[in-house]
Specification:
5 helices, mainly alpha
Length: 137
Amino acid sequence: MKSLPQSCTQCFEEFKTSLEDLRVFTQSSKSHPLSDAQTRELIINFEVAHELALKVITKYFEKEKKGPFSGSRDATVEAFHADLIDDGKGWLDMIIDRIQYNPVYPINTQKEFINNIINKYIRLLNRFEDKMEKELY
């Protein structure tokens, strides 16, 4: 049986749940050093939250009869122009960091990536949540 596509609001609710999970990990990292397993969990939670944010953006633009976009960069740029996000460069940095952080490649970017998640990207995702809350409800 074919399921109905998710609405923008349903995607946003999933994003909020994922963002709350990410907040727990970032708060925990501020009180004590993360173990290797916790570090991996933080990265996974960040990637899920970011993917869901991009899904919310895509669904929002579908509702507005805009798109489709060729990728996350195009959707991010359009979201910046539509004032859904307030720091286009920061969001593009998120995409670049996710591409660069890949355990398959020998370049060790994990420490910087973790630092960016905890000190920069969580704030961007929080502001996106606030903006979409106003936009959707």
